[in-house]
Amino acid sequence: MARGTRDWRRSPVGEPALARGVLIGVVLLFLALFLLLPLVAVFAEAFRLGPAAWIAAVTEPDALAALRLTLLVAVIAVPLNLVFGVAAAWAIAKFEFRGKAVLITLIDLPFSVSPVISGLVYVLLFGGGGLLGPWLKGHGIEILFAVPGIVLATLFVTLPFVARELIPLMQDQGTADEEAALSLGASGWHTFRTVTLPNIRWGLLYGVLLCNARAMGEFGAVSVVSGHIRGLTNTVPLHVEILYNEYNFPAAFAVASLLAVLALVTLVLKTALEARLGHGTPSRAGP
Amino acid sequence: MRAGVVKPRWRIRKPSVLPGFGLTLGFTLTYLTLIVFIPLSGLAWHSADLGWDAFWSLALAPRTVQALRISFGAALVAAVVNAVFGAAVAWVLVRYRFPGRRLLDAAVDLPFALPTAVAGISLAALYAPNGWIGQPLADLGVRIAYTPAGIIVALVFVGLPFVVRTVQPVLQDLDREVEEAAATLGAGRARTVRSVILPALAPALLTGFTLAFARGVGEYGSVIFIAGNIPFVSEIAPLLIVIRLEEFNTAAATAIGAVMLMLSFALLLVINMIQGWNRARFGHG
Amino acid sequence: MEIQVHDIRKGFDGHAAALNGLSLTVASGELMALLGPSGSGKTTLLRVIAGLEVPDGGRILFDGADASHRSVQDRNVGFVFQHYALFRHMTVAQNVGFGLSARPRSRRPSRREIRRRAEELLALVQLQGLEHRYPAQLSGGQRQRVALARALAVEPTVLLLDEPFGALDAKVRKDLRRWLRDLHDRTGHTTVFVTHDQEEALELSDRVAIINAGRVEQVGSPPEVYLRPASAFVFGFMGASNGLPVEVRGGAAFLNGCPRPVADGIRVADGPHMVYARPHDVVLAPDDETGTGLRGIAEAVRVAPGLVRVDMAVPGLDKRLELDIPMSDAHWMSVRPGQPIHVRLTHCHVFGP
């Protein structure tokens, strides 16, 4: 029977209407308090002094420099982790080999590490007392408290996004399509481009979207390696922190509102992509 | 004559006609090594370099222990709150139909998408004694911001989606007939929820709880603005690492980081074991 | 316990009404089959009786008392779900004992008593020794019997089974069918089960209710519904059939201008009708130009276990007629494809067009 079309609201097995109403009420209140209000507060504080102050805050030279750096970091980190994600997913999903489960766990590792520790490990590696620090200093190469360090820390924290989205997707799809293409005489690269890539494009985009959101919004890891040099090694989230700590709240929230818009755009695109991907619900847990 | 049983040769991988295994696996391993392993093993190397006694005297320094206690304690309380409310949110989203449900469903991911620093300053502004929520609470004599309670509020925010997104799919796949079976056997709704639905959700709830807890332990950006960061009171372990680094006390930072990592991995190990045990017994995760 | 279903109506959003004023009485101690195609409303009817579905109108009476407003929990029915709906996190014994341990404290038997009762029921369904297994560790047939034991544990007044053998393979299904009949004869519960398999319904039940489009087409014992179908639908649903459009004149049915009737002695008003006959009621007969009969061409001759199946083309009829000739009838050897043959209907039913 068409069980899916049954209206469970009228089911004699469900909760009484009163319990249902109370539960919905509690949940709505909880979400309003913990999710909606913080978001609203960002925009309310950002425009407290009017649009002119907002424009001034976000077009101030340090803010623009932070914006440029954040974009630069994302432009480097996202494509690198995209290539990594596709390569890892290809190896893991299309082949059977020993140690696969361990490899998958290792790819997920950055999600289980505190962002501050993600930054710390690079300080230990490249810092003055670190393993490579003295050698780098001797050759005049700056990594820590400079752009390369920020990029590396961002790479670390955003590494799993694309891979963990593609691995289950490509495992579900199996290898039959690729084998068919190869049996028809297509080359490996041609097969990947014309058969595999179209199959995974939405999942790929989904992973890139989440990867980008995190890359632009990362705070803890970047904060540790950046050195907070204004106009040079400040990303947008770090700039927000500095403004806030200087008690320049309207400017801090104005710049923060840019990141909030990024989050909203990400959520909208994510929801749209989930419909494409046929996720029943947006069920992929994020970082 | 011996029977012609072909024993498969021991191989790293099963043969396949698809190309690119060596290339992609090689790239994957190299990249992982450069970005993740070498830096992480640097932490281990530095910890070992400190020597056993020095390491533990740093790791067990009173301020460190207190910071770890605050981080783990606040994360635990927040994860419990999230387990309760996250399950309720998942239930309402899956089982009920009401206007705005899809919007709410999408909004649950906000903490994943909103940069932690933004969440941090926003929560601090809301719960500050002159904030939208802090003001009425202050009139009642309750302080949230700049106290450990503030840390919990921030961790509830960042941890909520973990519980909702792990419970939701399980709830969706839950067979309604099982609930109907309980009803035909005479069980009332409360009894059905308690002995039929909750046990079925327990593994997912536990997974979500652990994910939220693990995230809470390491969380930094959303906490530091609201916590007040008073040593021994509301100073979290990740912040103490940052402070030690700023003091150029790399050794202390290393020790705290190593202890946090060890505790987090122990946690993940436990949850994996619970899940494996569940799968073996009930045929599901 | 006698069940009376009175004028039950139930519709689902955006669908044709699932139950259209359906009425039915199940006698006390009877084993009744609800037989019908998928979407006919038979499962919905079963769920309405159990209280799992609230009807839009009508009444359910248990032993003459109105049970329409009693909750599922209070109806005390044993319901066996198609996919068993066992509690996966409970052992077999806990599953069977659930109904008893869910009772309010005042009526709850002791822990030991519940365990004893569960063991007793597991013995009844022949699953001794599996008390501590989990459902995931059982075969389909075993799960089915656990579900049955669980339903019986609450000492239900009626037992309702939704496609009880639907999810099992053919061999297990046959064994369980016989076993369920034995169990019913021993326990004497009023039992209603839903099935779409006419063989199952005929073999197992005391009476069959044939459901179509939310209504009861016919209720009767298996021989009754098989031999005296009340409608063309019932006839067709009970087995293979040949339908012939005929014109009835004076008790004789004529096919499309043939001078000889295909059947006679028919007690219906003159006019267009349909004559239905099973393949084994269409027999080869000598073409003696008297009495009833039908000429045609044998098109295909296929041997099946114990019989020969012949497709026969009849001039002026767009469908082939199917004949099942028993192998013991030596005439089949003379039938060749392309040859003219002559048949007679030994038994047929006439329904409106």
Write up what this structure looks like.
The complex is a heterotrimer of chains A (287), B (285) and C (353). Chain A has 287 residues and is an all-alpha fold. Chain A has 13 helices and no strands. In chain A, 74% of the residues lie in helices and 0% in strands. In chain A, helix 3 (61-94) runs antiparallel to helix 10, helix 5 crosses helix 7 and helix 9 packs antiparallel against helix 10 (188-217). The two termini of chain A are 40 Å apart. Chain B is mostly helical and 285 residues long. Chain B has a single domain (45-282), classed as MetI-like fold. Chain C has 353 residues and is an alpha+beta fold. Chain C is built from 9 helices and 19 strands. Chain C has a 6-stranded mixed β-sheet, sandwiched between helices. The chains are: A mainly alpha (287), B mainly alpha (285), C alpha+beta (353). Chains in contact: A-B, A-C, B-C. Chains B and C meet through helix 9 and helix 10 of B and helix 2, strand 6 and helix 5 of C.
Question: How is the topology of this model organized?
Answer:
The complex is a heterotrimer of chains A (287), B (285) and C (353).
Chain A: H1 17-46, H2 50-59, H3 61-94, H4 100-108, H5 115-126, H6 133-138, H7 147-158, H8 160-173, H9 176-183, H10 188-217, H11 220-226, H12 236-245, H13 249-277
Helix pairs in contact in A: 1-13, 2-13, 3-7, 3-8, 3-10, 3-12, 5-7, 5-11, 7-10, 7-11, 8-10, 9-10, 10-13, 12-13
Chain B: H1 21-50, H2 52-59, H3 62-95, H4 101-107, H5 110-113, H6 116-127, H7 134-139, H8 148-173, H9 176-184, H10 189-218, H11 221-227, H12 237-246, H13 250-282
Helix pairs in contact in B: 1-13, 2-13, 3-8, 3-10, 6-8, 6-11, 8-10, 8-11, 9-10, 10-13, 12-13
Chain C: E1 3-10, E2 19-26, E3 31-35, H1 42-50, E4 57-62, E5 65-66, H2 72-75, E6 77-80, H3 92-101, H4 111-124, H5 140-153, E7 158-162, H6 170-187, E8 190-195, H7 198-204, E9 207-212, E10 215-220, H8 222-227, H9 232-237, E11 242-249, E12 252-254, E13 271-277, E14 282-284, E15 294-304, E16 307-313, E17 321-326, E18 340-345, E19 349-351
Subcellular location (chain A): Cell inner membrane
InterPro entries (chain A): CysW_permease, MetI-like, MetI-like_sf, Sulph_transpt2
Main location (chain A): membrane
User: Hey, roughly how much beta strand do the residues of chain C contain?
Assistant: 25-35%
The count of domains of chain B is 1
Q: What would you report as the Rg of chain B, rounded to the nearest angstrom? A: 24 Å
Number of domains of chain C: 2
Question: If you compute it from the alpha carbons, what radius of gyration of chain C comes out, rounded to the nearest whole angstrom?
Answer: 25 Å
What is the helix fraction of residues of chain C, given as a range? 10-25%
How many strand units of chain C?
Answer: 19
In DSSP terms, counting alpha (H) and pi (I) runs of 4 or more, how many helices of chain C? 9
Distance between the termini of chain B: 48 Å
- The assigned CATH architecture of chain B is Orthogonal Bundle
